[in-house]
Structure formats: structure tokens, C-alpha cells
Amino acid sequence: MNAIREPAVAGSFYPSAAGELTDTVAALLDGVSDHTGRAPKALIVPHAGYIYSGPTAAAGYSRLQSCDDRYERVVLIGPCHQVAVSGLAASGAEAFRTPLGDIRVDTETIATLDLPIVEAAHRYEHSLEVHLPFLQAVLGSFELIPIVVGDATYEQVAQVLERLWGGPETLIVISSDLSHYHPYDVARARDHKTCAAIERLDPDRIGHQDACGAAPVGGLLLAARRHGLDVETVDLRNSGDTAGDKHHVVGYGAWAFVENV
Is domain 40-259 annotated with CATH 3.40.830.10? Predict the structure, then answer.
């Protein structure tokens, strides 16, 4: 099989034309004022349309620009919005396609994980797809391990991350937005509490009402605590700060996790 997972939200969440998409991602990355920091082992970044969460995602991905040649593999994990999934689910595709080209899937490693292959859960899922153009822009060539998370515990996610942890060649990207559809000030207060929990590596203080990717986030926090990672908040805002009104906002944050050396 030579399956290609075609883009599902190109033209809605981000531009479908390669030139326009390249320019959009470049402009978002250029808009980040601080590109400094140690090479991350993991990132948490949001997955809304680029006009809403693009600046926050770019703040996270900018941390990769000075160390792009170290990463050979990206473990990309996000929540499943479209199809009910029990636990975690992989894709059987050999490549994920974006307007910028195809990304090879590390099918050999996926085969060792004993995860179900649920193509329907990946086919229209945006939580992974929107990150791919950013990764292509900052890393160039890499292999991808795409996993969606449904009804899973934080520990289940942490166990999968442990099997994929690897060395400096492996980057872990967790896809999650924060609170949804609260008034601006309420959302800011809730999201700051979630941010504090992430900074303390405390998954017990993060529920599904706090982050749509709570299980992936919680799994990373467990793994990061076990590996002694440091965490830095890179950006925290919401759709009321970017392209939306302030009556019903969605929160976005970016965090970088680095090895304590």
C-alpha cells in the first residue's frame, strides 16, 4: 500500500496554495520577537486556524529554527475531533501531504506500538494537519509519527510517549487549544491556571474543560516529570487577541520542554 493522507483543511484553516502558505508561515515566524532558548525535546502548540492561533503556534515553532538540523523524527499527537476513538490510534498512511509536499510516515516504528490503525480518525482531523506546514518550514525533511487520542488516560499517552522518546533526533509535538467559548476575562483566568499547572508539570490540575487536548497534554506532563524536563511558557493568548471577538473566545498557549543539562 502506498497510501497518502491528503490535506483536509487546506483552504480553510490555512492557505491551500503553496506560495501563499509559504509566505503566511514565514510571516508568522518573522513576527516572533524572541527566537532564543535551548533546543526543545517537546512542544505544546495550538491547532486552530492560522488567523486565530497562528501567532502562538509560530512562537513555539520559532524555538526550532536555531536547531533544525538535530531533528529527524517528529512524534505528533493531538485530540480526535471527528471520530470516536478508544485510546490512541495511528494512521496506516505512508505519507501525509500538505500544499508544501509529502512527509514520510515512520511506518516501521508505528508497527511496533501495537496501536489500532483508524484511518477515519485521521482523514479529516485538523489537530495534526495544521502543524505540518510549520514543521516543514522550520525542519525541512523529517519523518512523522502521527497519533490521535480519543478516550485515553494521561498514563496511556505517557506510556506511548515513553516508547517513542528516543534521543535528540526525536521531537515531540503535542497539539492542544485551551478553554473554549468563555468571555475574554473568564478565559484568561482559566487559561492562566492551566498555564501554571503546565509549568508545575501537574496534570492533575488540567481537565478536559481546560484543554481540548487534555489527554495528550497530561501524558506529556507525566513523561516530562519522569524525565526531569524543564518547561517554559513561550506564549499565552486567545482568539480575542488575534482575529475574534471578546465574547466567546478560545485560548491558545505554547510551551517548550527542554532537557535539564
Answer: yes
